[in-house]
Amino acid sequence: MRSKAGLSHKHAGSLHAPDAEMAISNARDVYTRRSEGVSIWVVESKHIHSTLETDSESMFDPNEDKIYRHPTFYDIPDEVGHM
Amino acid sequence: MEKKQALFNYLLRLGDNSAILGHKLSEWCGHGPELEEDIAIINTALDLLGHARSLYTYAGAVEGKGRDEDNLAFLRIEREYRNALITELPNGHYGDTIARQFLFDQFNYLLFTELEKSTDETIAAIAAKAIKEIRYHLRRSTEWTLRLGDGTEESRTKIQEAFNNVWAYTGDLFVEDESDAIIVAEGIGPDLKAIQPIWREKVKAVLEEATLTIPEDGWMHSGSKSGRHTEHMGHILSELQYMQRAYPGCEW
Q1: Under an 8 A CB cutoff, do B143 and A33 touch?
Q2: What pTM value is reported for the model?
Q3: Is the ipTM of this complex over 0.95?
Q4: What's the gap between Cα B155 and its chain centre?
Q5: Measured between alpha carbons, how far is B22 from B18 in angstroms, rounded to an integer?
Q6: How far from B32 is each of A32, B27, B42, B237, CA to CA, in Å?
Q7: Which of B28, B29, B38, B39 should one mutate to test binding to chain A, selecting the residue with the greatest count of A CBs within 10 A?
Q8: Structural domains in chain B plus CATH codes
């Protein structure tokens, strides 16, 4: 779901549908009732490849002690404004 | 008949179509064939109730007797309702609901497309807002007609039966009376007889694509424009009006 023009699509949820057209239609009816979006992508779940729970240690744990990768040490000059 | 009375009748018909069909669809809430479809059909129900609210409010203003949308929706007797017979038919199985919906959506779409050009500015404005939703309703009921018709042997048999059963109620959509003659002459609404062949052509095209047969035009029910309804209408009103009859003026 793209919440407004210019922003990237974000995952809104899962649903059942007999085919792609109905999936878009169902996504509109289930996930945009409160003006959440202006554009919808649907992807059949069989086309999604995912990481495995069992790989989590080697995939994600090593990043936990590398705080220098978080750009919290820089002073941003006021004139730069919102980043 | 003066123009004001014709306009009031016309607005009630439009409002009652939306209110009664919206109410019928709302009966699916929590009972849809799957979660997504349950939400989708209720979205349509809510859209239709929204159209009814605008139309009733304007009807009350035209009448000038102080009746508001709730008064018109809940406090008339059966013979005063003017909704087309097709809108009050039972939901049946989901194919029955889809067949009824597709035939009505196609009619409503053609009607509201013309109402956008109405010489009555309020009707034109209501139509301009509603047509976006009606276009989507039509898209959805068309897609389901195609999938059920060109689906399995069972779904095809059931949806064909559904169209056969509802067909005799479609003629009532196009019946014109004295009010309609004034509405057409004043440029407020379209000539229904001009819409009918277009409706038929569009319906035929979708049914053929869905590998279905368009039912034969046989004897047609009619009477909604003079308030003569099917046996289902009284049951709808007993449920729809219960709260306002039991607790007059109640709000929540």
Answers
A1: no
A2: 0.90
A3: no
A4: 24
A5: 6
A6: 19, 9, 9, 22
A7: B39
A8: 3-246 (1.20.1260.10)
